[in-house]
Fold this sequence. Notes:
Residues 1-35 and 350-368 have low confidence and may be disordered. The protein is an all-beta fold. It is 3% helix and 42% strand. The chain is globular. It is built from one helix and 26 strands. The N and C termini lie far apart (73 Å). The chain folds into two domains: 1-36, no CATH class; 40-365, Glycosyl hydrolase domain, family 43 (Tachylectin-2, Chain A, 5 Propeller). A hairpin with a 2-residue loop joins β24 and β25 (331-342).
Amino acid sequence: MRHIAIVFRVPGYAFMTGAIHLVLIIGAVWSTTCRAEGGDGIPSELRTPNYRITKLSGIGYDKDLNRQDPSNVIKVGDRYYVWYTQRKRRGVHPYAATVYYATSKDGLTWDDQGQALGKGRAGEWDSFGVITPYVAVYDGKYYLYYTGTSPKGDFKSRGPDGTLRHIGVAIADSPDGPWKKFDRNPILSPDEDNHWENLLVDDAHVIRRNGKFWFYYKGGHQTVKTCDTQWGLAIGDRPTGPFIRHNANPLIGGHTVCVWPHREGIAGLIDSAGSEAHTVQWSADGLHFQRAAKVDRVLTGCGPYDPDAFTNTDYGDGIRWGVAQYREKGTLCIVRFDVDCKVPPDTDKQATPMSNKKLDGSAKTGRP
């Protein structure tokens, strides 16, 4: 004879026909876990990001200027700060720009505060231009990461004699500067032994995690197209390095890097590069990413407002907004993006898969 079991659920219990087994279910944990993630462990709030953009004043459209590559957003006192690449609309090479910054009380109306970081002196590694800023805060100091170049002759984007692009850092006691460039710059350079990043490293994005500094970046080789760049990771004990490249590199296809601590893992937005273009990504260990959602469009250069980035938290609350790059009337400007990627306040922290706390990124030494 075949027995068919039918299960009836009520809060806290399950009743099964047949032998009528009374099974205790810890209802609160079961309910929270189901809300928190699916069978693949992806947090539910990342599946419906509702990505949208809003135009800004102060750093928005300007017929005479290109503003692009915005940094992350930080808040100091009652003011938000953002850094970005700026150049005249005509007559200036995109890599020959410099870093400017702006402040805001509400994240919508911004005041341009002028140049934050200029080019290096003739012959120095960053004498051609300084671009793609990112700012970290640690131990009372501010660290402005940027990409610099110094071509031999004319700047060449690609090819066997393409211009190398490196990442350096400048340090200040205040977000308003003055900024002093680190005396051992650059802190990350292209790696001739790794084909995927033997021409450029760019778009630094640094998070303090597991007591170390996780340095995400974009890499590209001598024939790479913009749509084929990939993300890498290097890990260091200090915000200035030295940084050790992880042996899992490259991690995933992506152009500009946008990641943040999310629950016990790392979440990210991928813009226009690779097979995962225009997606929200999730990684329980910060290394192996999987798609959480596909969206119509993710703008280039998304920089999140992420208060958890430098706190060394073991549980990130997610993000709600940031800034990104947008083209309007042929000119690049900064806009705001909003997403519904905040962890629900009633979520049980133990409902998320544990990341590997012993992960140290050991493998290949970068060239500081």
